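Our consortium's second objective concerns turning raw sequence data into structural hypotheses that experimental partners can test. To show how far this objective has progressed, the report includes one record in full. It was chosen at random from the queue rather than selected for favorable results. The single chain below, 289 residues long, was entered without modification.
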Amino acid sequence: MEWLLMAVLSAVFAALTSILAKCGIRKTDSDLATALRTVVVLLFAWVMVFIVGSAGTIGQIAPKSLVFLILSGLSTGASWICYFKALSLGDVNKVVPIDKSSTILTVLLAIICFGETAHLAVKLICTAVLAVGIFLMVEKKKTEEKEQSRAWWIFAVLSAVFAALTSIFAKVGIDGVESNLGTALRTGVVLVMAWVIVFARGKHKELRSLDRRELLFIALSGIATGASWLCYYYAIQHGKVSVVVPIDKMSIVLTVLFAYIVFKEKLSKKAFVGLCLMVAATVVMAIFG
């Protein structure tokens, strides 16, 4: 099944996105970085649209699909803004597990909205195991910066909620729409939303003083995001949401590995157990989904 391979590739590119983005927001404001990344993603997405020749089908998109694609784009924009704000405040190994908890809400919504009730008991048990794994991975920082710690946690949770809504809206919106075209249209919504926030907060003034090295990482992060999205929404369109999403969230394994290699962020024994539980639950859901 081709959509399973796409779901796996989506996870690989998503892991690269987190690490590259972290490298690009050490000095650069997270909102500005999000807006810049979105420009790259949009260009990448439209290149793919013209390569597959689906640009001419825009006029055939049903109003319902268009509305849900827009809602999906708005949810994505909100999720990105919260996610990269959390990354700028907290450790990758702590932010990513919370963000990946969107799997729990997505699976529950897929069961309710799309009737994906096959092996329901297995899915619910795995969802509970995922929750335990996330709880174990998110350890409290032993620092004096308590307020900042709370801030990254709040932004990470909001990121997960909006990410879950993104998957559900996208599943409805992409029905009957070529997946690359759907991705490009959604990205356009995210782009507008991201730059409105940048200009509203006066952060566009920081464009002149951007660090070139960070700008490169932001661009690379955008390319990785574009590749992840194209694979993900192809898988969403042709497969089951309750199967595709858990596979996509397996990117956490690679993210943790990359975080150790690049940032020397080590996992404690407790966090490692949590990671193992998350991986086990995800694999089972992917198999029995």
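The partners drew two points from this record. DSSP finds twelve helices and no strands in the chain. Confidence is low (pLDDT under 50) at residues 141-147. Both points have been shared with the crystallography group to help prioritize constructs.
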